[in-house]
Amino acid sequence: MSQQGRPYLAIPGPSVIPEKVLNAMHRPSPDIYKGELHEVTASLIPDLQKIAQTESKVAIYIANGHGAWEAAIANTLSYGEHVLVLATGRFAFGWGEIAENLGINLTTVDFGKSEGIDLEKIEEILRKDIDRKFKAILVAHTDTSTSIKTDLKQLRDCMNKSQHSAMLFADCIASLGTDCFRMDDWGVDLMISACQKGLMTPPGLSFVWFNEKAQQARSQKNKVSSYWDWTPRTEVKRYYQYFCGTAPTHHIYGLRTALDMMVNENNLENIWQKHIDLSSAIWAAFDRWSHFGNIELNVKEESLRSNAVTAASISEGGAKKLQDWCEKNSDLTLGIGLGMADQEDEKIHNYFRIGHMGHINATMVLGVISTIDVALKALNIPHGQNALDAASKKLSESYSV
Ligand SMILES: Cc1ncc(COP(=O)(O)O)c(C=O)c1O
Predict the structure, then answer these.
(1) pLDDT given for residue 399 in this prediction
(2) Using alpha carbons only, what angle is made at residue 172 by residues 166 and 178, rounded to the nearest 5 degrees?
(3) Which CATH number covers residue 368?
(4) What atom in ligand 1 is closest to the CA of residue 13?
(5) Sign of CA dihedral 196, 201, 204, 206
(6) Closest atom of ligand 1 to CA, residue 206
């Protein structure tokens, strides 16, 4: 088949970048010492707060998500302190590893790769922590490897019930701008995210939002590395403090445009609803495919599924065959399995993920579903019928006038 038409990267981030964002970045270098760039940078802050539904401060880093992970720990915790890590996939472990390398002691509870967190178990752990050694709980709102979404409001209620003083730290890299998230209402003390998924901007910026309680933890620290310290970045007296050096000039314009698309030309509720509608269509298709053969959604319980990414499996290497076929014949790139088996293990070829976050619409999602349907037929992978019909029916219900 000819390789014409637009390629489509349907992996769970980096996501599709809108033309408007690309065009906003395509400009001569702006002056970093004065002028428009300073105003544009300052204008990002209130919109980043809106996106996170918070009045908390936000620090911006020229870094990927790993940088924000490190910034969160570096500002709030000290060598020898303890955190509780709640793992529903690879990414919570990743955040824990960053903390551990900064000298933090971890207690990690692994809830597996397909189930949600067990609140009773967490409550028990917190109640038993008489000395209140846990300073923070680290959790991924959506773990992108498994596509499990954690109910942060319920988690906060559980923490309150056990009257534990730990701060709640959430990784919203996959969920911000895709799934409902309300930092202040839900009692999240610190949240990190990055620009390359729901925020539709090329990778390179990440963020830490922190409330008063997290700020108190920062104030108790004597020293924080100059680069990660959020204080100068949020109490800016000179422009260069925003980024501890040269500003990410073009990213600032890209992000400005992406935020305009999200909060000025649209609103968050609409964006969250769009992600619900589109992910429901994908799951409707899987529901049919999985009637026959070995195709399975990773997360069986619908309320635990992310609206930004769907992890699934096809045994006997079927997932890898599907990915290869889609890329070769249709320029569609699906996400690889991550954290479901060792990356060197053959079994990893049984897993794949679909990213459905950010700048997407029904046409694009139906394209993904249809291409997968064609691939399953072309590859003779056993599957249930009428997936397209189920997806289109679901969408017609969502979009009915
Ligand atoms: C939930 C989550 N946390 C953290 C990260 C790490 O972010 P980065 O790869 O930008 O460092 C990712 C990346 O996909 C992620 O999905």
Answers:
(1) 87
(2) 140
(3) 3.90.1150.10
(4) 14
(5) negative
(6) 10
Phi first, then psi, for residue 204 (nearest 5°) are: 150, -15
| Containing structural domain, residue 386 | 8-14+267-398
- Locate the ligand 1 atom nearest the alpha carbon of residue 69 and give its number: 4
Residues with CB under 6 A from ligand 1: 13, 64-66, 91, 140, 143-144, 171, 173-174, 194, 203
In this prediction, residue 1 carries a pLDDT of 53
State the Cα angle at 301 between 297 and 303, rounded to 5°: 120
Residue nearest to atom 9 of ligand 1 (CA): 65
- Report pLDDT for 3: 62
| Total number of domains in the chain | 2
Structural domain ending residue among the three candidates 264, 286, 313? 264
Residues of the chain predicted below pLDDT 70: 1-3
Answer yes or no: is 3 within a domain: no
| Ligand 1 site-directed mutation target among 61, 91, 176, most atoms within 8 Å of CB | 91
Query: Is the same domain home to 327 and 361?
Result: yes
Please list the residues that pair with 137 across neighbouring strands. Answer: 84, 168
Q: Give the pLDDT score at 4.
A: 79
Q: What is the pLDDT of residue 2?
A: 52
